[in-house]
Amino acid sequence: MFRPLPAFIGLRYAGAQRSDEDSAGLVSFISGLSMIGLILGVALMVIVMSVMNGFDRELRERILGIMPHATVYNANPDINWTELRDEIAAAPGITAAAEVWQVNGLAKNGLDVTPLLVQGVNPETIVNVSTIDDFLQPGSFAALTSDPVEAGIILGKGIADKLEINVGEQLSVIVPQSGNSIGGGRSAAQLAGFKVVDIFHSGTALDHTLAIVDWEQAKALAGGAGGAGVQMRVEDMLGSFAIFQQLLRQLPVEGYYGSDWTGTHGNLYQAIQMSRNLVSLLVFLIIAIAAFNVVSTLVMVVIDKHGDIAILRTMGASTREILLTFVSQGALVGLVGVLVGGALGVLGSLAVTDAVAGLESLFGIQFLKSDVYPVDYLPSELQWGDVALVVGAGFLLSLIATLYPAFQASRVQPAAALRNE
């Protein structure tokens, strides 16, 4: 079988040991460290990139699945919101729309009070722009108005935990400055009682802020003034700002305003991207350091093999063949390191979510809390393109690291080397 001479000798050097046990042991130790460094660096970078991909996915599919891509408001009480919703839904670039009435208020249960965003929704249309129904029990929307005496409310788990309230219990919602005035021209607070019909757990920061009621109940809380709008989903999430601005220009009546998701959650998206880039850079430097440890390994091999190199030169080996011999040896270290590291990284990416959840359950702690982080668990999404990029970059750095010692080996002079043997 044909075997290229430089590759054959390089692979023999990678596994061969010289009679000088101290020298061979040191070379093997440094070579092992180089390979272990590559394995850990590649595996860590694959896992880190998968976790960052997971956070990006959760922002797009979970947080922005519940919240709209954009919302338009108008304080005019004469607007027919049903007609406006249908008009917006038919606009270019918009896939769905739903009317909503948003009110900022306080929830009170006994002595416990917490702020919340109350959204009055139409159960028939809200499911077109939000995935909130995926986190609710069947019939929860219908339960909002099923009791003719007391209206229902759906709370996020974070709110329910703060208020220590359960499904079926009573809750008071206070809306300050709702438009009802008292003596002296000050605004009175609007107070309404609700029955908790469901508690949703999305695993996001929305669990700590969002409450859902019927449209008419939110309108009554707001005193009929302000807070009404239309939520929408767009075809191109990253182009939502341009679509939203175009829609505002097309609406016939003055006074429309609002924002898209880049205004409400854009800072979170930018933070995820920046964290991804910075962490990837740091881990990439770890891979580079491990790859360039190959330099020290090959330098010692070149010193150890001076006599062998001289003999090869006297037997007719060219400078190019000597150079490729040591490149082959360094490439073997790099190839094994990045392949094993890539495999461990893939396994780690697939298991990291369950592993962290297991540690949380074992020690009774929670590493991520949704009132601080975007989600309350560690997400991961493996993308094979990232694996190929990391493995390829690690192997390329290993090859680059072999050039200097291989070049030094190719410059060994046979007469000078054999004189010292």
TrEMBL record:
One GO cellular component term: plasma membrane protein complex
GO biological process: lipoprotein localization to outer membrane; lipoprotein transport
Main localization (coarse): membrane
Keyword annotations from UniProtKB, A to Z: Cell membrane, Lipoprotein, Membrane, Transmembrane, Transmembrane helix, Transport
Domain MacB-like periplasmic core: 31-221
Annotated ABC3 transporter permease C-terminal domain residues: 281-414
Keyword presence, Cell membrane: yes
Coiled-coil ranges per UniProt: none
Transmembrane segments: 26-52, 278-302, 322-340, 347-367, 387-407
Pfam families listed in its UniProt record: FtsX, MacB_PCD
Origin superkingdom: Bacteria
Membrane topology: Multi-pass membrane protein
Location in the cell: Cell membrane
Keyword Transmembrane helix attached: yes
Family of the protein in this entry: Belongs to the ABC-4 integral membrane protein family. LolC/E subfamily.
Annotated PANTHER family: LIPOPROTEIN-RELEASING SYSTEM TRANSMEMBRANE PROTEIN LOLE
Name used for this protein in its record: Lipoprotein-releasing protein LolC
